[in-house]
# Entry
Amino acid sequence: MAIRDILHHPDERLRTRAKTVSKYDDKLETLVADMFETMYAAPGIGLAATQIDVHLRVMVVDCGKQDPYPLHFINPELTLLEGTEEMEEGCLSVPGIFETVSRAETIKVRAFDQYGIQFEMEADGLLAVCIQHEIEHLEGKLFVDKLSNFKQKRIIKKLSKLNT
Ligand code: NI
# Structure
């Protein structure tokens, strides 16, 4: 296992649309293990492959004790979005920035595990927010895209100060 480097906003590679995984092999297993290690080391509660510059539809989530286990999703698709909920979010690719965004309150997601077994699960609360956030990464989007232009510019300014 290895900790991978996390890309930071406004890195253009974060805007890549991830490709569908077609091979369920050792390489995929290593990627999932590395993503968990990278997420826990950060520490964070979710990580999409896009964030470590691997453009495949793979993501890991661990929202802690209230939800049953660390989860990984291969080729995730949302099959239900219901209600709205506002929650403060952060992102390992946008360090130090926390902003309230609006998302669906209850979701259903269909995905495969690393061995190619399909599953579907329902989620709400923090887990639902986290899954929606990570799926957006796979589409090349970030939670800050939902904010006003003024806020987005201010965030980029803040981040550029951190990086110099
Ligand atoms: Ni994120």
The CA atoms of residues 77 and 89 lie 21 Å apart. The longest helix spans residues 26-41. The pocket of nickel (II) ion is lined by residues 91-93, 133, 137 (CB under 6 Å).
